[in-house]
Amino acid sequence: MSSLLDLTDQTFGHLKVIERAPSHNTLVRWHCICMKCGGNHEATTFGLRRGQTIQCADCQGLFKWDDEKDQTVQDMKAEGKSEKEIAAVLGCNPVTVHRRVAKLGILAKRTRKTLRLDPDESQFRKYMNTPCTRKCLECGKTFSASGRLNRLCFTCGPMAHGAAFV
User: Fold this and answer.
1) Phi and psi (nearest 5°) for 87?
2) How many of the other CB atoms lie within 10 Å of CB of 88?
3) How far apart are CA 133 and CA 143, in angstroms?
C-alpha cells in the first residue's frame, strides 16, 4: 500500500499548505494560506499538484451573483442575446452564464433554422429521379427505368436481390 503524500509546508502558486483538512469524499483536502492576501483556502491534492488551484478565491476574483446581475441575464436572454454576449457585458465566463441561466430556469429564445435545398441540389434530384432508358448490367437488355439509380431490368433485379420466383 502506498503512503499518503504529505504536502505540509509546500507552496503551490500563491498557496502555502498548512495542514490536512477533513475530507468530504475520497479526495484529500488541505488547509492553505494565500501568500498574496493572507486569506484561508481549502484545496484538494489533485488541484494543488496539477496547478489548477494556485490562489485563493478572493485573489481569483470569482464572479459573485446578485439580483441586479440576474435581472441583466434575464433581460438579455429575453432579447435573444447569446451567453457569450451576456458574459462580455457582465465580465465573466460564458460557462458561468450558462450555469446561471440553467439555475434560474430561463428558456432561451431559439430561432428555428429551416433546411433550404440548394437550387443545384434540387435540379440534381430531379435529374436522378426522371424516368429514362437504361441498359441492364446483368443481361444487357434495354429497359425503361423509373430513375437513374436503377441499373437492373425487371427480370434481373429480383434475382440479384435473392427472390426465388420471378
Assistant:
1) -65, -35
2) 13
3) 6
Q: How many CA atoms lie within 13 A of 70 on its CB side?
A: 10
Helix (H, G, I), strand (E, B) or coil at 85: helix
> Are the beta carbons of 112 and 101 closer than 8 angstroms?
no
Confirm whether pTM is higher than 0.85: no
Rounded-to-integer distance, Cα 105 and Cα 65, Å: 15
Using CA atoms, how far apart are residues 5 and 29, in angstroms rounded to an integer? 11
Distance CA 147, CA 132 (A): 7
H/E run at residue 81: none
Tally of residues, the chain: 166
Residues 129, 146: Cα–Cα separation, whole Å: 7
Give pLDDT tens digits for 22-59.
Answer: 887 888 899 999 887 788 888 898 888 887 777 777 66
